[in-house]
C-alpha cells in the first residue's frame, strides 16, 4: 500500500513541476509617468517580452484606466487579433490602437486628451502559456502647457547668457573697427592738410 502512495505522490509532483516549467513570466515595460498638453494626442507606450512565439490571434492586450480619487479601474481598450475600441464612455473616439504585437508593442494613442483623462493607465499582456504577474502602469498628467524641467531651464539660462556675451563681444569688435577707421581717416586728412599748407 505504501508503494502505491509513493508512486501517486511521485506522479503528482511530476505533473506539478512540468506545469510550472511550461509557464513563463511575461515582462511588460512602460514609462512610470507621462505629461500631455490638453487637446493634443499622446501615445501610451507599452512594450512586452515573451519567451513564447508571438501570434496575432494568441496575444491579448487589455488597457484599463483608474481615475484620480478612485480605487477601481475600468476597462477601456482590448486587442486580440482585432481592435476593440471603446464604443461608449469617456474614451469613445479617443483611444486608438498604435501597437504591433508581432514586434512586442502593445501601445495605444489617446487623441485630443482632456483634463478628465488624468489618472493611472494599466497595460496587461497575455501570451499563453506566458502569464503576467504585474501590469505596466503609466500615470498621465494632462496640463495646460508642458512644464519645463530644471535641466531645460538651466540649458536656456546658460544658452541665453552665452548669446548675450557673444552679442556684446560682436558689438565691441564693430565699435573698435569703426573707431580705428575714423582715426586712420583723421590722420590721412591731417597729412593732406599739412602738405597743402607747405605748397
From TrEMBL:
Protein's UniProt keywords contain Membrane: yes
PROSITE patterns: IG_LIKE
Source organism of this protein record: Danionella cerebrum
Family: Belongs to the myelin P0 protein family.
Source species taxonomy: Eukaryota, Metazoa, Chordata, Craniata, Vertebrata
Gene Ontology CC terms: plasma membrane
One GO term of the biological process aspect: cell-cell adhesion
Top-level division of the source organism's lineage: Eukaryota
UniProt KW DNA repair keyword: no
Signal peptide stretch: 1-25
Localization per Swiss-Prot or TrEMBL: Membrane
Protein name (Swiss-Prot/TrEMBL): Ig-like domain-containing protein
Residues covered by the Ig-like domain: 24-141
